[in-house]
Amino acid sequence: MKRDITYFYRAQHYEHSIEQVFGTVASMLHITDCKYLPYHRLSLMKMAKNILYIVRQVNHHGVNHVTGDINFSVVFMFRAKTVLTIHDLGLVEHYHGFRRFIFRLFWFYLPVKRADIVTCISQKTKEGLVKLLRVHPDKIRVIHNPVGIHYKYTEHRFNSQCPVILHVGTNSKKNLARVIMALQGIPCELRIIGKLGPRLIELLKKHGIRYSNVYNLTEEEVVHEYNQCDVVSFPSLYEGFGMPIIEGQTTGRVVLTSLREPMTEVAGQGALFVDPTDVASIREGFKRLIAEPELRDRLIWEGRRNAEQYQPRVIADAYQRIYDELSRS
Q: CA 167 from chain center: how many Å?
């Protein structure tokens, strides 16, 4: 018997990357039963109310899919079929001591032990999880994130005189400061998606960067930004996946990203890889993409081919096979 599927999301707030990913999957599979935890900031009282909400909303007649960032939810889905998606291991990789122990126990060890099937969005995350928990790798499946349904290939003439370089994200791991330093003296417009703090604005002025800035965009507006740019800048220091790589490849834009996992896994042969900690490496990467049309054309072609495996139908079908597997068990 085919089971109904219930998606559990973190509380609704300013971040929405996970919701976009699984919103795409849900639309492809016609899943409409979506539950959002009531609270985001987790005081003890709010955590207790979140747990009570989970216990009351759990689907005992179908499959419950915890979509990410609320891994602990699985622990309280008693006698229910569960799928848990883990996006990255940042909560243990960036903490130490007692805090790391707590996150390892309640965000990873107990949820993974309780879940029927665990999915990770990259091979890097799976390997890290196996190493962290000593869990059998067969319990963990790698299913990549899908590109949004609005992303399509569009023809574009590259502006080699003053290219628009699109940089997505402004938090520290997105490495914008080094990108700014790398672009000093290179004729271009740096188009930045994400709020800029005073330090980054001062850095832009110091290095004489021509730039523009937008944030709080709809998905359609973000797609428009990709369509209007010449280069996608994504030399990130740390990612669970790296969605801008696939978004750039799908729309037919050349991508510069980091020579480290999972960016190399996600991009395949369709990006120019640089050392994200080396300003000179980033600078040389941008200069090559601007000056070498044959290189751009090859990377764009490889990128479009690579992006085919991240199309919504492909990823949705992979999740459907997992739901069907649990339905038969």
A: 15
